[in-house]
Design goal:
The complex is a heterodimer. Chain A contains 14 helices and no strands. By secondary structure, chain A is mainly α. Chain B has a domain of 213 residues: Orthogonal Bundle (MetI-like fold), CATH 1.10.3720. In chain B, helix 4 runs parallel beside helix 7, helix 4 crosses helix 10 and helix 5 packs across helix 7. The chains are: A mainly alpha, B mainly alpha. Chain A: It is a multi-pass membrane protein. Chain A: It comes from Streptomyces maoxianensis. Chain A: Belongs to the binding-protein-dependent transport system permease family.
């Protein structure tokens, strides 16, 4: 097992938790007898003693570890990482899924950027999706969380209602959107009372994306709200009191004191927003299979592999573009995580 | 990424309606008005779907969905169940989601245990491998998996298509492989909040790794497992893409993907579709309303770590 950590391993223990019992664990020996072995430094000896002696794992332990770590790792490699690398490799080929795989270099990408008319609109829609979720839905979710966190009455009701759309399948959200935005029978047109020339909210390629974005935001806002609400509840209230005593206004307190402490939540919310925007698929597919103004990169990938012409190489090239964009964000996030891990 | 003051995650995040500080101003009324308006606006589309599903097509096509009802009935629900066999699709969903959730939780909890509790070399790397995997867009892995599953032969008793493609094995394994990352992430964070002493005491007593995991750590993780299980069930239930790509036989589709079948070739009865949507949404809404505490705890476990 290459995974076994040597005695010198750097796992600084976490700071004591405030909530009692578990407060005092540290690498210093508690149980067992600290053995003093010749030339070793005191620290390394005590570490080793805390680590239940030199023989940590019996043969049976190693077997259990290998199997129960091996299966998930294999699954993760086979389902996630292997295919990701394969996608990258296939994007340089002209494979159709059946015949021989022939290397075509960057031709797929050239075709994609220059002579595939759906690509740029789809990329633009994805970016618009990201901008809308990031600049409208996410701040709105934060606002709602802050308001609910003020401890008003009925906050449970507000919280549940706002969160409710999140449990719906995106496909269902897509269908419900059709009930609201349909041209002849939809609720929106009925409210507007425009019977002369009703707007076709989902049929007009200039408009439909915005309507779908509203539907997506309907679901995203509640998600963001719950995450922030949990973050806000964890903020030390003495911070706010101190700021209030110093004469800070409520707004100042929030932006200067509370918001910075929410950084971990901000990171998570940021990642979720990016991922949701890039993964967006179900809603548009449920509405009109992602055509006529609702093209998205994810739809193009799916069309290229399960359509009549299975252009695996080309579909992979689109997927790689999607991958590269998301990688930028994921790597930023991971760097944050590793840093946090070191501080534990 | 530690919020030191975070309460034990599963215990509290949702349930605090305790008013912390009362606004003395009439601004409070405005606040309620605002929150109430937003809440109702959020609720409205759902109510509209329920309302539309209870009314016959002729009526809504003439007057629109937003009109007073002349006749309300459950006919569409009956139709959805009898004509399009929703029961079958529900069973399909369960065939995918139940093993999916259980296996994902089992494997993820062991990986999380190894990462968080056994001090092994490379545990951070392992954690990253799983966490980052969950963040990739599905479309990146869909193509190679489609090809791969088409080439893996399975005996007839496992899959009547004789390949992994068009079988539940494909969907279940992708669900597990993809969701395991999130579960590891959440459970590892949770396990770190457990006192190490319990484990140390067990080790002194000579407990094996399996005992440390199954008998000692896992029972303490019950709240986290409940939260995560609820969340994962909803996600797998709601999934749309995997089944769409990996299953070609319409009879094997799970309920979310089968919703598309209610759409006619040339004519779509949106009221029927509304009834279908309500039927599909109902289990997740019930799960949410009944297990709200677990559900939200599952989400927030991942973000504010103890």
């Amino acid at each position: 097992m290459p995974l076994l950590r040597s005695p010198g391993g750097q796992r600084p223990d976490r700071p004591p938790r405030p909530c009692g019992s578990g407060g005092t664990h540290s690498p210093e020996p508690k149980a067992g007898t600290p053995k003093d072995t010749g030339g070793r430094t005191k620290a390394s000896v005590s570490r080793r003693a805390a680590r239940r002696g030199p023989r940590r794992f019996t043969r049976r332990d190693v077997a259990v570890l290998s199997v129960l770590l091996g299966i998930p790792v294999l699954l993760d490699v086979a389902i996630v990482w292997g295919p990701t690398l394969a996608s990258v490799a296939l994007s340089f080929t002209s494979w159709d899924g059946i015949g021989d795989i022939s290397w075509v270099g960057t031709k797929n990408y050239e075709t994609l950027f220059t002579s595939y008319p759906q690509f740029w609109p789809a990329a633009r829609h994805n970016l618009l999706w990201l901008a809308f979720l990031g600049l409208v839905a996410t701040p709105f979710g934060l606002l709602l969380a802050v308001l609910i966190d003020k401890g008003v009455r009925f906050s449970r009701f507000y919280q549940s209602t706002l969160y409710m759309p999140v449990v719906l399948s995106l496909a269902v959200v897509g269908f419900i959107a059709q009930l609201v935005f349909s041209r002849d029978q939809g609720a929106l047109n009925a409210i507007l009372g425009d019977t002369e020339s009703p707007t076709d909210w989902l049929g007009d390629p200039d408009l439909n994306l915005w309507m779908i974005l509203l539907a997506a935001a309907w679901r995203h806002t509640g998600y963001v709200m719950i995450l922030y609400l949990a973050g806000l509840k964890a903020v030390d209230s003495s911070l706010k009191e101190a700021a209030a005593i110093d004469g800070a206004s409520e707004t100042q307190t929030f932006f200067r004191v509370v918001f910075p402490t929410l950084r971990p939540v901000n990171v998570i919310v940021g990642v979720i927003t990016v991922i949701e925007a890039l993964r967006a698929f179900d809603i548009v597919y449920a509405v009109n299979k992602g055509r006529n103004g609702l093209e998205l990169l994810s739809v193009l990938v799916t069309d290229n592999i399960i359509g009549e012409a299975s252009r695996i190489g080309f579909g992979s090239a689109i997927a790689v573009v999607l991958l590269l964009v998301s990688m930028g964000f994921v790597v930023t996030y991971l760097v944050q995580e590793i840093r946090g891990e070191k501080n534990r | 990424m530690t919020l030191d003051t975070a309460p034990a995650p599963a215990a509290t995040p949702t349930a605090t309606a305790a008013p912390r500080k009362h606004l003395p101003r009439p601004g409070r009324l405005g606040l309620h008005a605002f929150l109430m308006t937003v809440s109702l606006a959020f609720l409205a589309p759902l109510l509209l779907a329920v309302y539309a599903s209870l009314r016959p097509y002729d009526e809504t096509s003439e007057h629109g969905y937003f009109s007073l009802p002349k006749k309300l009935s459950f006919d569409y629900y009956q139709q959805a169940f009898s004509d399009s066999d929703m029961t079958k699709y529900f069973v399909n969903t369960l065939i995918i989601a139940v093993p999916g959730v259980l296996l994902a939780l089992f494997f993820a909890s062991f990986v999380a245990f190894a990462v968080a509790r056994l001090r092994m070399r490379g545990s951070v790397l392992l954690l990253m491998l799983f966490t980052a995997g969950n963040l990739l867009p599905q479309q990146v892995i869909v193509t190679p998996l489609y090809v791969l599953f088409n080439r893996i032969p399975l005996p007839y008793w496992m899959s009547d298509s004789m390949t992994m493609f068009d079988s539940y094995w494909a969907v279940v394994s992708v669900q597990i492989g993809f969701q395991i990352g999130f579960c590891v992430f959440v459970l590892a964070n949770f396990m770190r909040t457990l006192p190490q002493e319990i484990l140390e005491a067990a080790i002194v007593d000579g407990a094996s790794v399996w005992t440390q995991y199954w008998r000692i750590t896992l029972p303490l993780c019950r709240p986290a497992l409940a939260a995560l299980g609820t969340l994962q069930f909803t996600w797998m239930y709601n999934d749309f893409l995997w089944a769409l790509v990996f299953i070609s036989d319409g009879d094997k589709l799970p309920i979310t993907s089968a919703l598309n079948n209610l759409r006619g070739q040339f004519f779509t009865d949106y009221n029927l579709l509304a009834a279908g949507s309500v039927i599909v949404a109902l289990p997740t809404l019930l799960v949410f309303l009944l297990l709200q505490r677990h559900f939200i705890a599952g989400l927030t476990l991942g973000s504010t770590k103890g």
